[in-house]
Design goal:
The complex is a heterodimer of chains A (251) and B (231).
Chain A: E1 2-4, E2 7-12, E3 15-20, H1 36-43, E4 50-55, H2 66-74, H3 79-95, E5 100-104, E6 107-109, H4 110-117, E7 121-125, E8 129-131, H5 145-153, H6 155-164, E9 168-169, H7 170-175, E10 181-183, H8 188-200, H9 205-220, H10 223-250
Parallel strand pairs in A: 3-4, 4-5, 5-7, 6-8, 7-10
Antiparallel strand pairs in A: 1-2, 2-3, 8-9
Chain B: E1 8-13, E2 16-21, H1 31-42, E3 52-57, H2 68-76, H3 88-106, E4 111-115, E5 118-120, H4 122-128, E6 132-136, E7 140-142, H5 156-164, H6 166-175, E8 179-180, H7 181-187, E9 192-194, H8 199-209, H9 214-230
Helix pairs in contact in B: 1-3, 5-6
Classes of the chains: A alpha/beta (251), B alpha/beta (231).
Chain lengths: 251, 231
């Protein structure tokens, strides 16, 4: 296991596990919660088939440390660069094109929720709590929350969550489709781990990446472009598969 | 009933077009099937005034999907040993297949897939292009492409995600596992589950009951979406 800035990294059976370990609230130390260089080194493992993100102890994460953030602003430490660095961390994770699952229990606020929103699947324990409280500090969700929340829960719910800053519990989060599964709170990690294993265990990394890539395209590109890109990916995989089959049968 | 096609049967009864996937028992979608679908959609469908179209399989199954060996041969072309880069010919072949199924959503008449038995891979993708999907209690679904080292290539990823959410879509697509009619209903992939002997009848009844102006609204919905995707 390796760790930096109270974030731990471990690879188990091809599953990369990111553990937020800054108890009790698991505040993100900086917007760039894993220095990008370290993250690149960690994720360069060619055997990676999926990623699991969770928090140690009682909570997933209460998000950015506001006290520290305002200190940084006062000291005029280039806050914009820091936020951009945070975006780059999330972008790097997304562009690995591996299935990413957030295993959530306890609080999942602000930057913590934005990190979870970058995942494909969100699994939460009963009685977890979700909020984007940034506006009550005179800010707005700055790690992609305003962009990634609406496609998940719709514009109305997004506005409500972001403007009110109100907390919602697991049941309500499931109802608005913010989370995908609710499980007993002490089984969240296990459930997430088994789900990734079930999804990726029998597949080659090439196929996994192709699928995730196609999902990403569907979400980010105009429909026609995403479809033609999907056709190209399919075609390449089909040629690879044809090569494998026909070579075998000739022998 | 004339048999101008080898893989499908097209007949019109009381202004309802019956499109039968007709290579029992599995009604596999062959290269010929895709070609005949293109012909049907580009020419034949427009020859008569229709109130709607119902798609179903001859026999116990809707369809078990694409004929994989044939498909791979077609894509690999004459020299399957060289590289994995796709030439224009292979891309054109795949795009034509896509078009032959996606054509349905551009039609200004409602299309229903009436699904019995197996509805796998490209067959489910075909059903996704229908405006409605009814299925029998015995229906079995899957997008098993990843288990053959491929991905669903005819819009399955987009449709599954839109209907069931991307978390569930990812789960079912990566595992490629099958699921039954009730799960499909819960996921939102299917609009109605009926007794298996009644599926086609129910679909026809449904089309007959739709108001005349329905077709017009359908066209508007479609055009609205096109305009949206182009801005």
């Amino acid at each position: 296991m390796e760790s930096i800035n109270r974030v731990e990294w471990e690879v188990r059976e091809g599953i990369g596990i990111i553990t937020l370990n800054n108890p009790p609230e698991n505040y993100l130390y900086e917007p760039e919660f894993i220095p990008i260089k370290t993250l690149k080194k960690w994720t360069s493992n060619p055997k990676l088939k999926g990623l699991l993100i969770h928090g140690k102890g009682k909570h997933f994460s209460a998000g950015g440390d506001m006290t520290r953030l305002f200190e940084m602003i006062e000291e005029d430490l280039a806050i914009r660069q820091k936020m951009e660095a945070g975006d780059r961390v999330i972008k790097h994770l997304i562009e690995l094109d591996l299935p990413m699952v957030a295993a959530i229990h306890g609080v999942c606020f602000g930057g913590g929720l934005e990190l979870a929103l970058a995942c494909h699947i969100r699994i939460a324990g009963e009685q977890s709590l979700f909020a984007l409280p940034e506006t009550s500090h005179g800010l707005l969700p700055g790690l992609g929350g305003t962009v990634r929340l609406p496609p998940v829960v719709g514009e109305a719910r997004s506005l409500q969550m972001i403007l009110s800053g109100d907390m919602i519990n697991s049941e309500e989060a499931r109802l608005i489709k913010l989370i995908d599964f609710i499980v007993p709170r002490n089984e969240v990690f296990e459930y997430a781990y088994r789900l990734i294993h079930k999804m990726t265990g029998n597949l080659s990394i090439r196929v996994i990446r192709a699928v995730i890539r196609a999902f990403r395209n569907a979400a980010t590109m105009p429909a026609e472009e995403a479809i033609s890109e999907e056709t190209r990916i399919f075609c390449e995989l089909a040629r690879e598969e044809a090569k494998r089959r026909f070579t075998k049968s000739d022998k | 009933m004339s048999r101008i096609f080898h893989t499908i049967t097209w007949k019109v009864v009381d202004c309802i077009g019956h499109l039968v996937l007709d290579q029992p028992p599995s009604n596999m979608m062959t290269v010929t099937f895709f070609r005949e679908m293109t012909e049907l959609m580009e020419v034949i469908v427009h020859l008569q005034e229709l109130k709607g179209i119902v798609i179903y399989g001859n026999g116990r199954h809707y369809s078990s999907g694409a004929d994989l060996d044939e498909l791979l041969q077609e894509i690999a072309g004459e020299n399957p040993y060289v590289g994995t880069t796709c030439d224009e010919r292979a891309m054109h072949f795949l795009q034509t297949n896509y078009k032959s199924l996606s054509y349905f959503e551009e039609l200004s008449v409602p299309v229903i897939s009436a699904i019995r038995g197996a509805c796998l891979g490209s067959a489910l993708e075909l059903a996704f292009f229908s405006h409605f999907r009814f299925c029998g209690e015995d229906a079995i679904f899957a997008l098993p492409e990843t288990t053959f080292n491929l991905i669903p290539g005819i819009g399955g990823i987009q449709r599954f995600s839109t209907l069931a959410g991307s978390a569930r879509a990812l789960d079912y697509i990566l595992t490629g596992r099958t699921f039954d009619a009730n799960v499909a209903l819960e996921l939102g992939l299917i609009d109605q589950v009926c007794p298996k002997k009644k599926v086609v009848d129910r679909a026809v009844e449904f089309l007959e009951k739709l108001p005349e102006r329905y077709s017009l609204s359908l066209r508007k919905v479609y055009l609205g979406r096109i305009v949206k995707s182009k801005t």
